[in-house]
Fold this protein.
Amino acid sequence: MSHVFRASHWLQLGFTVFVIAAVWLPIPGGGAGLALAQRTGDRDFSGITVSGEGEVRAEPDIAVVTAGVTQQAASSQEAMDEVSRRLAAVIAAARGLGVESRDIQTTGLSLTPIYRQRPRGDETVEIEGYRASNNISLTVRDLRRTSTVLDAVLANGANNIGGLRFSFANPEQLRLQALANAVVNAESKAQAMASAAGVSISGVISIQEESVSFPTGAAQADFARAAPALAAAPAPPVESGEMVIKARVRVSYGL
């Protein structure tokens, strides 16, 4: 007599047959989870889902300098005229060092009244002057000239350096490489987990981009008060260093 009982035999005896699924829940901080399940009905997913991280290190190839002129005068016309005169000299100096017209952009223009201080209780409004300001951004594509450009804009009338940041002329290629590295990292994690569980991955089910981050590469500065001294000093040293682009993806693999 055979001692092998099939599921149909149990059903005939009035028993319910259950399909048991084993699930390996995500380990906190591990960034990955393993699910092993038999395919029954609509619950047909059997695979591993992991997060992958990738990065690319590269030296920036452009610098963006934000410079400007601020001037105070008795009349609005005088303030604006002086700002325009000095900023024109700044732009001419930048162009003379190879900064193209397409890389010069106005980033801020303002004119505000300056009110005379009155004793408390005196509500009389009296304007004693005006403050005008005009700022531009200069994209320097030859990083060897960044320090020279900074020196030139200060020497030719700029009294504000609003910031200096480094970036890439073609960031898309770096973004794609970081994503590709993240996918490779995800596959390594999935292979290691599947091997430890005694199974094999059969292929990719889905890939989702979670994030790509570029460092700001910015150094903020305000040289308004020190502009006269800086204009006479040697060109300030500028180092671009190396920047790291990071990517994160989420990938599901079948088993």
Remarks:
- Confidence is low (pLDDT under 50) at residues 1-42, 221-226.
- Helices lie at 7-12, 76-96, 146-155, 171-197, 227-232.
- The longest helix spans residues 171-197.
- The radius of gyration is 32 Å.
